[in-house]
UniProtKB/TrEMBL annotation:
GO terms for cellular component: membrane. Gene3D superfamilies: P-loop containing nucleotide triphosphate hydrolases. It comes from the Eukaryota. This is ATPase AAA-type core domain-containing protein. The lineage of its organism: Eukaryota, Sar, Stramenopiles, Ochrophyta, Dictyochophyceae. Keywords: Repeat, Transport. One of its GO terms (molecular function) is lipid transporter activity.
Amino acid sequence: AGLDPLARRILWNALLRTMDERAMVLTTHSMDEAEVLCGRLGIVVAGQMQCIGSPQRLKNQYGHGYEVSIRLKEASASRVTEVVQAFQQEHPSAKVLDEYVTGVTLLVPRQEMDVSKTFGT
């Protein structure tokens, strides 16, 4: 934590050289770091191992898509419904995960979400 990009790369290279001949347990909150440094990942939640596997396997199995949270300035159930309908016109497979009077959270499948298009409009 708190390393500049050059120092982080130097540390990563040192760890990679060390790992050629031994196993290492590494804890991190950075998925980028975990993907670079680890052949197998475990995800721990509240002190319990939830899953273990290669980075690609875990992404395929658990990376179902993007969670998009939309917050409204003013509370209005009818406005939330309008927002959901408009969003689902652009992303027909989007599913509502949580809906409340001040906003909504939707899940959009990875293959349906063009992030640059969605956030550029």
